[in-house]
Specification:
Elements lengths: L8 H9 L8 E2 L2 H6 L4 E5 L11 E5 L2 H12 L4 E5 L4 E10 L3 E8 L4 H4 L2 E4 L5 H9 L17 H16 L7 E9 L4 E3 L2 E4 L1
Antiparallel strand pairs: 1-4, 2-3, 2-4, 5-6, 5-8, 6-7, 8-9, 8-10
Helix pairs in contact: 5-6
Length: 199
Protein backbone atom coordinates (compact mmCIF):
# COMPACT_ATOMS: atom_id res chain seq x y z
CA UNK A 1 0.00 0.00 0.00
CA UNK A 2 1.33 3.41 -0.97
CA UNK A 3 1.41 5.98 1.82
CA UNK A 4 0.20 9.49 1.08
CA UNK A 5 2.80 12.25 1.46
CA UNK A 6 3.00 13.80 4.92
CA UNK A 7 1.21 17.17 5.08
CA UNK A 8 3.29 20.35 5.22
CA UNK A 9 2.78 22.76 8.13
CA UNK A 10 0.23 24.80 6.17
CA UNK A 11 -1.65 21.68 5.00
CA UNK A 12 -1.83 20.30 8.56
CA UNK A 13 -2.88 23.77 9.74
CA UNK A 14 -5.90 23.71 7.42
CA UNK A 15 -6.89 20.21 8.58
CA UNK A 16 -6.65 21.09 12.27
CA UNK A 17 -8.31 24.50 12.24
CA UNK A 18 -11.82 23.02 11.88
CA UNK A 19 -11.23 21.33 15.27
CA UNK A 20 -10.19 24.69 16.79
CA UNK A 21 -6.55 23.61 16.93
CA UNK A 22 -4.82 26.73 15.63
CA UNK A 23 -1.24 26.65 14.35
CA UNK A 24 0.44 30.07 14.58
CA UNK A 25 1.65 31.64 11.34
CA UNK A 26 1.22 31.37 7.57
CA UNK A 27 3.06 30.88 4.31
CA UNK A 28 4.45 34.24 3.15
CA UNK A 29 6.21 35.96 0.31
CA UNK A 30 9.46 37.81 0.95
CA UNK A 31 7.59 41.12 0.88
CA UNK A 32 5.11 39.88 3.48
CA UNK A 33 7.93 38.60 5.72
CA UNK A 34 9.71 41.96 5.54
CA UNK A 35 6.47 43.74 6.53
CA UNK A 36 5.88 41.64 9.68
CA UNK A 37 6.37 42.98 13.18
CA UNK A 38 9.77 41.80 14.39
CA UNK A 39 11.39 39.63 15.60
CA UNK A 40 9.99 36.77 13.51
CA UNK A 41 10.60 33.08 12.87
CA UNK A 42 10.99 31.69 9.34
CA UNK A 43 10.89 27.95 8.67
CA UNK A 44 10.37 25.56 5.80
CA UNK A 45 6.75 24.73 5.08
CA UNK A 46 7.57 21.03 5.03
CA UNK A 47 6.79 17.82 6.88
CA UNK A 48 10.40 17.13 7.86
CA UNK A 49 12.24 17.74 11.12
CA UNK A 50 13.18 21.26 10.10
CA UNK A 51 15.57 22.08 12.94
CA UNK A 52 17.80 19.10 12.09
CA UNK A 53 18.05 20.29 8.48
CA UNK A 54 18.87 23.89 9.37
CA UNK A 55 15.57 25.17 7.99
CA UNK A 56 14.38 27.10 11.06
CA UNK A 57 15.55 30.66 11.69
CA UNK A 58 14.51 32.26 14.99
CA UNK A 59 14.56 35.86 16.18
CA UNK A 60 15.04 37.55 12.82
CA UNK A 61 14.89 41.31 13.29
CA UNK A 62 16.69 42.92 10.34
CA UNK A 63 15.94 43.07 6.61
CA UNK A 64 19.26 41.38 5.88
CA UNK A 65 18.59 38.45 8.23
CA UNK A 66 15.08 37.96 6.85
CA UNK A 67 16.26 38.07 3.22
CA UNK A 68 19.08 35.61 3.94
CA UNK A 69 16.84 33.12 5.77
CA UNK A 70 14.13 33.41 3.12
CA UNK A 71 16.63 32.70 0.34
CA UNK A 72 17.97 29.58 2.10
CA UNK A 73 14.53 28.14 2.86
CA UNK A 74 12.92 28.92 -0.49
CA UNK A 75 15.49 26.82 -2.35
CA UNK A 76 13.68 23.69 -1.16
CA UNK A 77 10.26 24.69 0.24
CA UNK A 78 7.69 27.38 0.82
CA UNK A 79 8.42 29.77 3.67
CA UNK A 80 6.25 29.67 6.80
CA UNK A 81 6.46 32.76 9.05
CA UNK A 82 5.52 33.23 12.68
CA UNK A 83 5.93 35.83 15.41
CA UNK A 84 8.34 34.92 18.18
CA UNK A 85 6.35 33.39 21.05
CA UNK A 86 8.03 33.05 24.45
CA UNK A 87 7.02 30.68 27.24
CA UNK A 88 7.34 27.07 28.34
CA UNK A 89 7.53 24.34 25.70
CA UNK A 90 5.24 21.32 25.88
CA UNK A 91 4.24 18.61 23.44
CA UNK A 92 0.69 17.57 22.62
CA UNK A 93 0.13 14.69 20.27
CA UNK A 94 -1.71 11.61 19.13
CA UNK A 95 -0.02 8.22 18.77
CA UNK A 96 -1.28 4.79 17.76
CA UNK A 97 -1.23 2.20 20.55
CA UNK A 98 -1.51 -1.47 19.54
CA UNK A 99 -3.97 -2.15 22.38
CA UNK A 100 -5.96 1.06 22.83
CA UNK A 101 -5.78 2.56 19.34
CA UNK A 102 -5.31 6.33 19.19
CA UNK A 103 -4.15 7.87 22.47
CA UNK A 104 -3.48 11.48 23.44
CA UNK A 105 0.03 12.40 24.61
CA UNK A 106 1.13 15.37 26.73
CA UNK A 107 4.48 16.23 28.25
CA UNK A 108 7.65 18.30 28.23
CA UNK A 109 8.26 19.58 24.72
CA UNK A 110 10.86 21.08 22.43
CA UNK A 111 13.99 19.40 21.13
CA UNK A 112 14.51 17.51 24.42
CA UNK A 113 11.19 15.64 24.43
CA UNK A 114 12.90 12.28 23.87
CA UNK A 115 15.53 13.04 26.52
CA UNK A 116 13.19 13.99 29.37
CA UNK A 117 10.52 11.35 28.60
CA UNK A 118 8.10 13.30 30.81
CA UNK A 119 4.82 12.28 29.21
CA UNK A 120 1.30 11.18 30.10
CA UNK A 121 -1.25 9.36 27.93
CA UNK A 122 -5.05 9.15 27.79
CA UNK A 123 -7.62 7.50 25.54
CA UNK A 124 -9.89 10.03 23.80
CA UNK A 125 -12.28 11.67 24.13
CA UNK A 126 -11.01 13.84 26.98
CA UNK A 127 -13.20 15.80 29.34
CA UNK A 128 -11.87 18.98 30.91
CA UNK A 129 -11.21 17.11 34.18
CA UNK A 130 -9.39 14.30 32.37
CA UNK A 131 -7.19 16.82 30.55
CA UNK A 132 -6.36 18.52 33.87
CA UNK A 133 -5.47 15.14 35.41
CA UNK A 134 -3.26 14.36 32.44
CA UNK A 135 -1.28 17.56 32.95
CA UNK A 136 -0.96 16.80 36.68
CA UNK A 137 0.54 13.37 35.87
CA UNK A 138 3.72 14.99 34.48
CA UNK A 139 6.61 16.75 36.16
CA UNK A 140 6.21 19.76 33.87
CA UNK A 141 2.60 19.91 35.03
CA UNK A 142 3.84 21.54 38.26
CA UNK A 143 4.43 24.73 36.27
CA UNK A 144 0.68 25.03 35.79
CA UNK A 145 0.09 25.09 39.53
CA UNK A 146 2.15 28.25 40.09
CA UNK A 147 5.54 26.56 40.67
CA UNK A 148 8.15 29.25 41.46
CA UNK A 149 5.71 32.00 40.61
CA UNK A 150 5.12 30.88 37.02
CA UNK A 151 1.97 32.36 35.49
CA UNK A 152 0.73 29.88 32.89
CA UNK A 153 -2.57 29.73 31.05
CA UNK A 154 -3.64 26.27 32.13
CA UNK A 155 -7.18 26.84 30.85
CA UNK A 156 -5.89 27.37 27.29
CA UNK A 157 -3.74 24.24 27.47
CA UNK A 158 -6.68 22.17 28.75
CA UNK A 159 -8.83 23.49 25.89
CA UNK A 160 -6.12 22.49 23.40
CA UNK A 161 -5.93 18.94 24.80
CA UNK A 162 -9.72 18.58 24.58
CA UNK A 163 -9.68 19.91 20.99
CA UNK A 164 -6.92 17.49 19.96
CA UNK A 165 -8.87 14.62 21.51
CA UNK A 166 -11.87 15.55 19.34
CA UNK A 167 -9.63 15.48 16.28
CA UNK A 168 -8.24 12.09 17.32
CA UNK A 169 -11.70 10.69 17.90
CA UNK A 170 -13.09 11.78 14.53
CA UNK A 171 -13.13 8.67 12.38
CA UNK A 172 -13.30 10.77 9.21
CA UNK A 173 -9.68 11.90 9.66
CA UNK A 174 -7.14 9.40 8.36
CA UNK A 175 -3.75 9.77 10.04
CA UNK A 176 -1.28 7.67 12.01
CA UNK A 177 0.39 10.20 14.29
CA UNK A 178 0.23 13.87 15.25
CA UNK A 179 2.95 15.93 16.95
CA UNK A 180 2.31 19.49 18.09
CA UNK A 181 5.82 20.26 19.27
CA UNK A 182 6.46 22.69 20.61
CA UNK A 183 3.33 24.21 22.01
CA UNK A 184 4.42 27.41 23.75
CA UNK A 185 2.41 28.14 26.89
CA UNK A 186 2.53 31.47 28.68
CA UNK A 187 0.14 33.67 30.63
CA UNK A 188 -1.71 34.67 27.42
CA UNK A 189 -2.44 31.23 26.02
CA UNK A 190 -1.19 27.98 24.45
CA UNK A 191 0.33 28.51 21.01
CA UNK A 192 1.05 25.69 18.53
CA UNK A 193 4.21 26.70 16.67
CA UNK A 194 5.08 23.47 14.88
CA UNK A 195 3.16 20.44 13.67
CA UNK A 196 3.98 17.08 12.09
CA UNK A 197 1.25 14.75 10.89
CA UNK A 198 1.92 11.20 9.64
CA UNK A 199 -0.67 9.95 7.19
Amino acid sequence: MLLRPMPTISEAQRILEKYKVNVVGSVVSLEQALAMKRPIVLKADSAEHKTDKGLVFVGLDTDEAIRDAFAKISKSAGVFAQPVVKGEEVIVGVVEDPTFGRVIMFGAGGIFTEVYKDTAFRVPPLSTKEAEAMIADTRIGRLFEGFRGKEMNKKALVALLVAVSKFAGDGSESFRELDLNPVIVNRRGAFVVDVRMLI
